[in-house]
Each structure stands twice: as structure tokens, then as C-alpha cells.
Amino acid sequence: MKKENIPNALTLLRIALIPIFILVLSLGHSIRMHVFAAVIFAVASITDYLDGYLARKWNVVTNFGKFADPMADKLLVMSAFIMLIEMNMAPAWVVAVIICRELAVTGLRLLLVETGGTVLAAAMPGKIKTFTQMFSIIFLLLHWTWLGQILLYIALIFTIYSGYDYFKGSAYLFKDTFR
Length: 179
Hints:
The protein is an all-alpha fold. The protein folds into two domains: 1-75; 88-171. The protein has six helices and no strands. It is globular, with a radius of gyration of 17 Å. The N and C termini lie far apart (55 Å).
């Protein structure tokens, strides 16, 4: 495989791991299955870091990667949070806020590209949001409930703050909305 294709292959691997992750959690609710699911989720999360790192290092950023990488992240995290609700390991209202923010920021990114070709890069609060979301999921699946819950609420705070920050920075798009 050419090195140009490795970041995109990692993104595709992350997408392919999502139904496997869901299947493992659906097959049983034993601690062993939760740990196995946590390992799958951790591997998928590592591909998130690795694909972006390699694409930038090798200067092989592609349109597919720009589209698929953030989509894969959202699909992975949203799937995990939905499964955690089903297992009574995460409050539905917290997950609803997280999913609503993800959809709103995705819509904002599309609007920015459509109106001026601007790409909304992830700022530090958004990166902290992603990091804390992923680690909260892993720790909750490992039944390190206390740490998982703390990280979940930190993720919620950064989810709200980063969403606000992105919309505040793009407020000019909506200046004529309420005239």
C-alpha cells in the first residue's frame, strides 16, 4: 500500500470497527465483553490520532480524509454513547446534548464551506472534548465508573463550550437572521 493511502485506510478501519464494537456490546453485558469492546474502541480511537498525524506528516491530506475522518469520529463516539445509554452507563440527556452539538457543528462546517470555502479546523476546546469523550467511554466500559463519569461531565462542559466557541466565531453567517 502506498503511504498516501495509509491515513485513509486507517479512517476506513475506524469505520469498519464500529459495527464490530456494537456487535460485541450487543452479544452480552459481561465485564469481559465490555473490556473487549473497550479495547476495540481504544484501537479505533488511536486510528483517529494516527490518520491525522500521518496525513499531515506526509502531506497527503485528501478530500476523502477531510470528509471521512471527522465523520468516522462522530459515528464512533455517537454509537458508543448510544450503547452506553442502553446499558444504563450514561445519562441520556448528556448524550443528547453531545449528539445535538455534534450535528450542529457539522452543519456549521458545511455552511462555512458552502458560503466561502472556509474549513473550520478543530480548536483546542474541541480537541479536549474529543479526548475526554473517548476516554470517558473507555473508562465506563472498563467499569471504572467514577473516573468515567467525571470525564463524561468534563466532556459535556467542553462539548458545550467548544460548540459555543465555534458558533461565536461564525456569528457573521447569521447576522441577517433576525432582522
